[in-house]
């Protein structure tokens, strides 16, 4: 969550699950190790927040340049190569609540041979992560990665082999990149049959409200997506259809696809209503649409902070 200081985070009372990217903290890992600061302290998180640690960049989604021995990632210090041993050293040092096993994640544009290699590499790396996990009394929970691109056979093999391991949950990778909704539904229904019901399922890169609800109906438990970030980056505020009177006067409010409003629009420059009347978030209870419209027009960073606050609240509502 860019731009949020400690006092901003304190306003997010429902901040219970936070994704942390290894690449984002790469330049800070030495300082964390030297000071002994925990993830929660470093990120100003409440003590009961759950941290999910991974190397997946759901915002930039860079082209995979992985090999059979290392995962490539784009950090603040440039491109880095990381092995399962290096990754697990960070996991064991900082002890996040949960972490995603290192995996050779590629998108669906790659061919069958590359998808096959990615699946096999991911299984090997999962075994390495399991063998290197701190055997303390309360080790971080590990999530295995389900991959296979747009090839159902590889998807099923990945799920079966991953679930044979001693894991605490699964991450569904490689979706949300342009596949048809029908194919996505088929994959999620396959996992509903193959993955044990006791294992939580985290879906990457799917964030549209309607698509989230469809995935929940197919058994998905949690999501990690850039959708709220991308929406607010282009000055849209999320206003889901949740029976609030706020959306009754919005153009297209009768259409369930009307889930956002563009606050750069001139029609909001004198609109003194909150983004959503009745919403308990800090942005809605303290500021108006007109004020945020002004902040955007003068390129004030406070607008970004308010967008972060409201999108976190709406994601919790959803």
From TrEMBL:
Residues 66-307 form the tRNA-guanine(15) transglycosylase-like domain. One of its GO terms (biological process) is tRNA modification. InterPro entries: Queuine_tRNA-ribosyltrfase, TGT-like_sf, tRNA_ribo_trans-like. This is tRNA-guanine(15) transglycosylase-like domain-containing protein. It comes from Aphanomyces astaci.
């Amino acid at each position: 969550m860019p731009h949020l200081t400690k006092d901003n985070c304190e306003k997010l009372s429902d901040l219970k699950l936070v994704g942390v990217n290894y690449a984002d903290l790469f330049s800070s890992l030495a300082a964390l190790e030297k000071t002994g600061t925990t993830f929660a302290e470093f990120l100003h998180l409440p003590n009961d927040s759950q941290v999910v640690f991974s190397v997946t960049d759901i915002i930039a989604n860079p082209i995979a340049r992985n090999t059979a021995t290392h995962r490539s990632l784009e950090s603040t210090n440039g491109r880095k190569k990381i092995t399962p041993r290096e990754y697990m050293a960070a996991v064991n040092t900082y002890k996040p609540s949960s972490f995603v096993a290192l995996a050779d994640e590629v998108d669906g544009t790659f061919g069958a041979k590359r998808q096959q290699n990615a699946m096999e590499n991911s299984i090997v790396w999962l075994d390495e992560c399991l063998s290197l996990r701190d055997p303390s009394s309360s080790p971080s929970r590990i999530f295995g990665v389900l991959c296979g691109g747009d090839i159902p056979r590889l998807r099923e093999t990945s799920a079966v082999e991953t679930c044979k391991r001693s894991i605490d949950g699964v991450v569904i990778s490689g979706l949300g990149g342009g596949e048809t909704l029908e194919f996505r539904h088929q994959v999620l229904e396959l996992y509903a049959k193959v993955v044990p019901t006791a294992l939580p399922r985290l879906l990457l890169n799917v964030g549209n409200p309607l698509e989230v609800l469809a995935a929940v109906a197919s058994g998905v438990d949690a999501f990690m997506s850039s959708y709220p970030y991308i929406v607010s980056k282009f000055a849209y505020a999320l206003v889901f259809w949740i029976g609030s009177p706020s959306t009754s006067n919005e153009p297209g409010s009768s259409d369930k696809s009307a889930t956002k409003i563009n606050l750069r629009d001139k029609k909001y420059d004198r609109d003194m209503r909150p983004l959503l009347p009745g919403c308990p978030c800090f942005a809605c209870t303290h500021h108006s649409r007109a004020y945020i419209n002004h902040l955007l027009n003068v390129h004030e960073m406070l607008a970004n902070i308010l967008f972060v606050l409201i999108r976190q609240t709406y994601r919790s509502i959803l």
